[in-house]
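Input protein
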Amino acid sequence: MNLGKTVRMLRRKKGLSQQELADKASISRTYLSQIESGACNPTIDLLENIGKELCIPFPIISFLSLDIKTIPESRREDFLTIEPTIMKMIDDFLFIESECQSK
């Protein structure tokens, strides 16, 4: 997965349209669409802001964006062992509450 696909997946899980998330993050819907399609690479600051609006910390967005091919081969087996448990914990933690308070 990549960052754009991760942002799209999280936005959809939160039940937001592109326009709604773009408005919350103070960017254009077109720019958000470009991020989600992988046509552009957002800054870490922007990803942190998007994460804030989704109520998802940037480190979690980063983890969800990992591609097994980017993990050193010597660590892939370890990653594949822990990844399902971590994904379940993230899913349970992030989507129990549909609301968050972003400031």
Observations:
- The chain has one domain: 3-95.
- The longest helix spans residues 73-95.
- The two ends are 29 Å apart (CA to CA).
